[in-house]
């Protein structure tokens, strides 16, 4: 295996990692992001697309290094520079978002609970969060008492510890419902979950971003060496 093969293999591995991070964000954090933003985030697609592009250009870098074409190596270095800038911006945005999430999520999640109808995307996202994290309401199950849904159907079944043990009559009765639903609220759990996971995503993105600088340096050095050898041969 030539140096170019090894170098490009390492780049491809970072691309696969970034692709996996993007997909993980989409499927693991997607429901939570829907409760924070009015529209789905494009960040997972950006990370996945960048990861896939790194894998493809890793093959191009391998071909360029083993063929000894300086212009290809320079093109590869330009691509890695663009990737570095994209990942750096994504990493910074992740850290900023991580520290701004508390106020944003409290407002958005409270509004989603108050307007819950059990059918729209935000309502389904609320159900998903309550089932996954075993929580109920914003601070606790009493958050549902002031929602538009409670007078009609009571507390949502997604709050039930055991769904088979929850009847609509129980969930509409504040006293009985307290014995059937999760006691802990979702706000603190979700904020903690997103902050920790956004920290991991931002950290991985930063690490991969700075690894691109090593790639740029090596590609430029290799191009210079090839040019120098060709000049000496002439």
From TrEMBL:
Disulfide bonds join 136-159. GO terms for cellular component: plasma membrane. It is found in: Membrane. Keywords: Disulfide bond, Glycoprotein, Membrane, Transmembrane, Transmembrane helix. It comes from the Eukaryota. Signal peptide: none annotated. Belongs to the tetraspanin (TM4SF) family. This is Tetraspanin. It comes from Amphilophus citrinellus.
């Amino acid at each position: 295996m030539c140096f170019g093969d090894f170098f490009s293999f390492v780049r491809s591995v970072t691309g696969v990692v970034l692709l996996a991070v993007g997909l993980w964000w989409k499927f693991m954090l997607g429901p939570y992001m829907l409760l924070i933003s009015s529209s789905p985030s494009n960040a997972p697609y950006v990370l996945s697309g960048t990861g896939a592009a790194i894998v493809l250009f890793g093959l191009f870098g391998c071909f360029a290094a083993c063929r000894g074409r300086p212009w290809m190596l320079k093109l590869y270095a330009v691509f890695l520079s663009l990737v570095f800038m994209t990942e750096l911006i994504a990493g910074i945005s992740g850290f900023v978002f991580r520290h701004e999430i508390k106020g944003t999520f409290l407002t958005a999640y409270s509004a989603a609970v108050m307007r819950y109808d059990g059918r729209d995307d935000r309502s389904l996202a609320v159900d998903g969060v309550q089932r996954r994290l075993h929580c109920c309401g914003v601070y606790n199950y009493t958050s549902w008492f002031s929602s538009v849904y409670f007078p009609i159907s009571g507390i949502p079944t997604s709050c039930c510890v055991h769904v088979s043990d929850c009847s609509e009559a129980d969930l509409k009765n504040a006293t009985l419902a307290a014995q059937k639903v999760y006691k802990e609220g979702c706000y603190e759990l979700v904020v903690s979950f997103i902050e920790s996971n956004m920290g991991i995503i931002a950290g991985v993105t930063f690490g991969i971003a700075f690894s691109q600088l090593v790639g740029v340096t090596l590609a430029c050095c290799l191009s210079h060496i090839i040019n120098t050898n060709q000049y000496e041969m002439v």
